[in-house]
Amino acid sequence: MNESRLIYYTKRFFILFFLFLIVSKSWAPARMHKNTIIYPTGHKYEQKEKYEVCRLKKELRKPTEIKCFYTRQDKRGSELIITNDQPTFSCLKEMKCKRE
Questions:
Q1: What is the model's pTM?
Q2: What percent of the chain has pLDDT over 70?
Q3: Closest by CA position to 64, among listed 91, 90, 84
Q4: Which of 55, 68, 84, 96 could be disulfide-bonded to 89 (CB atoms 3.0-4.6 Å)?
Q5: Which residue ranges make up each domain of the chain?
Q6: How far is CA 75 from CA 21, 93, 94, 100, in A?
Q7: Residue from 49, 56, 86 nearest 70 by CA
């Protein structure tokens, strides 16, 4: 009779223990959902692209196109050339360009 009582109480204990675990999880403080940013590569912690200042070196105007030649601030990268077909286009004195 003692063994059956022991089994009965252990079953009760485990049932109450599991109920306690379930209830304690449901009473946990609410967490705000933070939207994860999906980058083009799909990596969660992608590094942002770095930019540098590019200054206008010269502007070449032809009847068919306009070319703007920019030099990078750090002078390590190549020269940046922007071409446009619109005659009303004007080159910016300085702009941000991606680092190489």
A1: 0.52
A2: 73
A3: 84
A4: 84
A5: 51-98
A6: 63, 17, 14, 11
A7: 56
